[in-house]
Write a structure and sequence with these properties.
single chain; about 90 residues; alpha+beta; Phenylalanyl-tRNA Synthetase, Chain B, domain 1; three-stranded antiparallel beta sheet; 2 helices; globular; Signal recognition particle 19 kDa protein; ribonucleoprotein; 7S RNA binding; SRP19-like_sf; RNA-binding
Length: about 90
């Protein structure tokens, strides 16, 4: 499963790529912050830091590939919860 920071960014609109509601989303999530949350969740992942999000191709934000079997939206909600606890 591929996770871009834009999926959980409170500052982004749905058109800009946010997948979760604003109440759940996190302000300016970074790859490092997402990595800390994934470590806490004990999930295997791989970081691709030199990649560009297609809707914002002028900026290198990177993404994380996570080994997770389940629905993406449920995972993103869990991820936001863990990030807020950090």
């Amino acid at each position: 499963m591929i996770i871009w920071p834009q999926y959980i960014d409170k500052n982004k609109s749905r058109k800009e790529g946010r997948k979760v509601s604003k109440e759940i989303a996190v302000r300016n999530p970074s790859i490092k912050l997402i990595e800390k949350a994934l470590k806490k969740m004990n999930l295997n992942y791989k970081i691709y830091s030199d990649k560009r999000y297609p809707r914002e191709h002028w900026e290198r934000v990177g993404y994380i590939e996570v080994e997770y079997n389940g629905k993406k939206l449920e995972f993103l909600k869990k991820l936001c919860k863990v990030i807020r606890e950090l």
